[in-house]
Amino acid sequence: MAGCASAARSVMRALVLSDIHSNIDALEAVMAAAPPYDVVWNLGDLVGYNAAPNAVLERVQQLRDVSVRGNHDRACCGLYDAENFNSIALAAVRWTQRQLNEGSVEWLRALPKGPIYISAEERTAGPHSTRRTLAPGRLSTPVVRDGESTFGRDDKPDYKSNPCEIACVHGSLRDEDQYLASIADAEEQPIGPDCRITFFGHTHIQGGFAANADGEWMKLRPMYSKDDAAESYALDLRGPMRYLINPGSVGQPRDRDWRAAFALYDDEADRVTYYRVPYDVRLAQMRIQRAGLPEMLASRLRVGR
Ligand SMILES: [Fe+2]
Q: Domain residues of the chain, as ranges?
């Protein structure tokens, strides 16, 4: 049944969402198009930029997901001084602060700082179990020392047979506000044999990075052929590699593709599938205009920038 958590099972499929940014129209399109899943991992920035913060928070709270906080979440609930935001982002923060009710502010303030780690046995604990299986703040073993990766030089762990862990962050493992935008950024990440896959957001760019057993990184970018219909792109994961995976932004993509972005991680198939789905972008733009938010926030949605 599309869009609904499945019955109890021994493997796990995680719907990975990020950077919804108060875009309820994009979020509803994603939830309608989502394949069956057991858990939702939400990588932060639920609010900011778009004009439906309360509707998005209500919808997300129904999902019983694992969420980490993003910089816009912190700014909108008063945990972070947004004075260093650009003027358009700051206008949206101030507007969002006026819209949020007390319960929403409290809920945002309680969002954990990433990374959140999810181990192999925790992943098989069944649906809706993630609230009690969080292990925030436990850092994995760094594998980059003195600028050189030690991963895989002497031993090449088989992640499919060893317990492995997954991390969920907003920016990066090092810093919740870091933009993982380049291979140089990826090379700095402390990803080791006990942390094979890190799901991250913040850049609003779908794709990510992968490293082979010799520590050589490459960019991942799903390839699509359309720009006005739903599409998916499957990435089969390989045992000795490690991954930084960005599901893309639900509510404000910046990779020149206006369609809402998300991903599904299937641990039995050992696969990440990226998705893009069209949504009623005109409606989202009208909400921004009616709210009196800067026009640029509406116009950028249609061009994915
Ligand atoms: Fe964001």
A: 13-303
Residue 141 DSSP label: P
The pLDDT score that the predictor gives to residue 189 is 87
CA angle 47, 286, 59 (to 5 degrees): 35
User: Which ranges constitute the DSSP H helices of 110-156?
Assistant: 120-123
Q: Residue 10 has which token pair?
A: 């021994």
Q: What is the Å distance from ligand 1's center to 40 Cα? A: 18
Expressed in angstroms and rounded, the spacing between residue 177 Cα and the centre of ligand 1 is 10
What SS3 state is found at 130?
A: helix
For the domain spanning 13-303, the CATH number is: 3.60.21.10
Q: Which of 298, 190, 289 is nearest to 244 (CA)?
A: 190
* Positive or negative torsion for Cα 295, 298, 303, 305: positive
d(CA 114, CA 1): 31
- Percent of the chain scored above 90 by pLDDT? 71
Please give the distance, rounded to the nearest whole angstrom, from the Cα atom of residue 162 to the centre of ligand 1.
34
Asked if residues 31 and 273 have their Cβ atoms less than 8 Å apart, the reply is no
What gap in Å lies between CA 89 and CA 72, rounded to an integer? 9
